[in-house]
Specification:
single chain; 58 residues; mainly alpha; 2 helices; 0% strand
Length: 58
């Protein structure tokens, strides 16, 4: 290895961090929104669990 320091390519790093942030935000919001949608759309317990399974499969 050389003694030179590696320069971080911020143009690629920032979009990657942003995508993972929104991915985590949607995944965390999913468990909060399922009970709301369950009452709004009159879903049974099995149907609401199917929404969660379909999200994680996708």
């Amino acid at each position: 290895m050389s003694a030179e320091s590696q320069k971080t390519n911020w143009a690629q790093f920032i979009p990657l961090v942003t995508v993972f942030f929104f991915w985590g935000f949607v995944a965390a919001s999913n468990d909060i929104l399922i009970p709301v949608f369950k009452t709004a759309f009159n879903l049974s317990q099995g149907q609401s669990q199917l929404v969660s399974v379909a999200f994680y499969i996708a």
